[in-house]
Design brief:
This protein has two helices and four strands; from the N terminus they run H-E-E-E-E-H. It is α+β, with helices and mostly antiparallel strands. The chain has one domain: Nuclear Transport Factor 2, Chain: A. A four-stranded antiparallel sheet has the order 1-2-3-4. A hairpin with a 2-residue loop joins strand 2 and strand 3 (78-88). The longest helix is centred in the first third of the chain and has 47 residues, at 3-49. It is rod-shaped and about 80 Å long. The N and C termini lie far apart (87 Å).
Length: 117
């Protein structure tokens, strides 16, 4: 093989290694963001509603769309009591909390029993 061909082959290999490494760093960063967003969401449900929840699905939106992680989950032991919640990973605030009718009813029943006491 010619020296020119070998040089190009080495440059392409180096480029592939560098780009592959960058992808790994981005993947690790994305995983850390998702884990922190899950912790924020779980803490939100504990503090706001006194509920222990499990996150079952999460999606980090592309940064050009929004700086947030969208999640789905349910109350532990009550899979029909579902929710969706978003966490902004720039300031770690919760957004767009949506409760299923079953979860909303359970929360309303809990509130009315507290009011009766």
């Amino acid at each position: 093989m010619s020296k020119k061909y070998m040089l190009w082959l080495r440059l392409l290999t180096l480029l592939a290694v560098v780009l592959g490494g960058c992808k790994d760093v981005k993947g690790n960063e994305q995983t850390a963001i998702i884990e922190e967003a899950q912790a924020v969401a779980i803490t939100h449900f504990i503090e706001e509603y006194g509920l222990e929840v499990r996150i079952t699905k999460q999606e980090m939106l592309p940064t050009y769309v929004a700086s947030q992680v969208n999640m789905e989950g349910h109350v532990v032991g009550e899979e029909e009591q579902r929710f969706n919640i978003s966490v902004n990973y720039k300031d770690w605030t919760t957004l767009n909390t949506i409760l299923s009718p079953e979860l909303n009813n359970a929360l309303n029943k809990g509130n009315s029993s507290k009011e009766e006491k």
